Amino acid sequence: MRSATEPTAAANRPAASRLRVRLERWNRKLHYYAGLFLLFFMWLFAVTGLVLNHPTWSFAESWTKRKETNSERAITALGPELRGDLAQAREIMRQLRIEGEILWTTTRMNADQFDFQVRRPGHYYFIKADLALNRVTLRHSKVNLWGVMKVLHVFSGVQLDDPRQSRDWTLTTVWAYSMDAIAAGLIFMVLSSLYMWWELPQKRLLGAVILGLGSLICGLFCIGLRWLF
Amino acid sequence: MRKRFYWLIRDLHLYLGLFSSPFVLLFAISVFFLVHAWLPKIGSETSNTRVVSSLPLPVNLQGLSGRPLIDALKATLEKADVHGEVGFIRHMVKEEKLTIPVTIPGRQTIVTITIASREATIVTRETGLADAMATLHRSPGEHAPAIRMNSFYMQAWRWLADTTAYLILFISLSGIYLWYILRAERRVGFVLLFAGALSFFGLAYALSH
């Protein structure tokens, strides 16, 4: 079967420009090329979207099934050149050979007591450092595959409602820009599909009704609820 | 028979895709807001404060918490003309006050009730379209399942968000079928599928190991 399986309006019109025909062909090709490249990413976000919306689904439970290890380790004293929490946290992580995104969850009350968390998909590190004794208590929680997938869905290193958080691990930045690229790819796929649908005159009416219905419902939630209530 | 099946799948792919496309756009556009903790100001952000008195309060207020407290306060919020999904309620025992956050996509309301006087100060903030999209993207979410889904809109939205996810799964599977039928595109398609799988598993492995 050929790539363009259905006669389109442009193909039926002898006067249609070559450019337009080429645009249609490439639009169609790029639509499924993008879909095939993004397939596993889309499946990840669709499945984890469902799982995140249903935290009571027990098969996808990860936190209660975590494996924990506790250890106490000695570290070499942090030099005076390490100013600020971020630099000190990075040095402690380097000594403990831990990699991941640093989370700030506690305010430092005692200058010698430094607590912080490090997270990356599948791993949670809870670090309590005593800088006076140069000792670190490390709790490491490892979660199952569902836990890895759920964290991948939300792993951006920043939070809308917490301006203190910023990305500090290179791989978080790589993943964040990957999510941007996936989102851009999805937007392209939607727009290219709208173009393909519009080029099928016999399907315009029913398609317009269905698209209108979807847009109406979506618009109700984005804008309409504020008007209604 | 095979041809009929092909056209059925193709039509379903088209029409279900058209229905879900506004939802997919909503989820895809809001990714940029959530990934970069950035909310563009689409529409003006306004805030207003009003005071409502003589509010009905549940008799056993002190003994309630969590979802039963939210359910018991529904009549109070109705009287105060505040609608939406109720978040985590703070009960300040010393001050004899209740702070109730209520959300509708694009609007955040904080209701502070002084229990003794049955008076509420209601601060309503219109946060705009971008915030509405980010709120919907994260709703209902995984946190506090015991208190979530306490409004009709959130129940309906969860259903729609689930439907969008199921439709994406169906559309991707039907898309694979429609691509596989096109022999001329198989080779390039397999290369891209492999490249996508390699990128996905490579990134997931690097992040989690």
Question: Could you explain how this protein is built, in words?
Answer:
The complex is a heterodimer of chains A (229) and B (209). Chain A is α+β, with helices and mostly antiparallel strands and 229 residues long. Chain A folds into 2 domains: 9-56 and 177-228, no CATH class; 67-142, no CATH class. Chain A is built from 6 helices and 5 strands, in the order ααβαββββααα. In chain A, strands 1-5-4-3-2 form a 5-stranded antiparallel sheet, covered by helices on one side. In chain A, strand 3 and strand 4 form a beta hairpin. In chain A, helix 2 crosses helix 5 (170-198). Chain A is elongated and about 85 Å long. The radius of gyration of chain B is 24 Å and the shape is elongated. Chain B has 6 helices and 6 strands, in the order αβααβββββααα. In chain B, 53% of the residues lie in helices and 17% in strands. In chain B, strands 1, 2, 3, 4, 5 and 6 form a 6-stranded antiparallel sheet that branches. The interface between A and B is large, with 74 and 78 residues.
Gist of the model:
The complex is a heterodimer of chains A (about 230) and B (about 210). With about 230 residues, chain A is α+β, with helices and mostly antiparallel strands.
Annotation keywords:
heterodimer; A: 229 residues; alpha+beta; 5-stranded antiparallel beta sheet; 6 helices; 51% helix; disordered N terminus; B: 209 residues; 6-stranded antiparallel beta sheet; 6 strands; 17% strand; elongated
Envelope shape of chain B: elongated
Mean pLDDT of chain A: 91
Helix segment count of chain B? 6
Estimate the helix proportion of chain B, in percent: 40-55%
Walk me through the topology.
The complex is a heterodimer of chains A (229) and B (209).
Chain A: H1 9-12, H2 18-53, E1 67-74, H3 85-96, E2 101-103, E3 113-120, E4 123-130, E5 135-142, H4 145-154, H5 170-198, H6 204-228
Antiparallel strand pairs in A: 1-5, 2-3, 3-4, 4-5
Chain B: H1 2-35, E1 46-52, H2 66-72, H3 74-79, E2 85-86, E3 90-92, E4 97-104, E5 107-114, E6 119-126, H4 128-138, H5 152-181, H6 186-208
Antiparallel strand pairs in B: 1-6, 2-4, 3-4, 4-5, 5-6
Helix pairs in contact in B: 1-4, 1-5
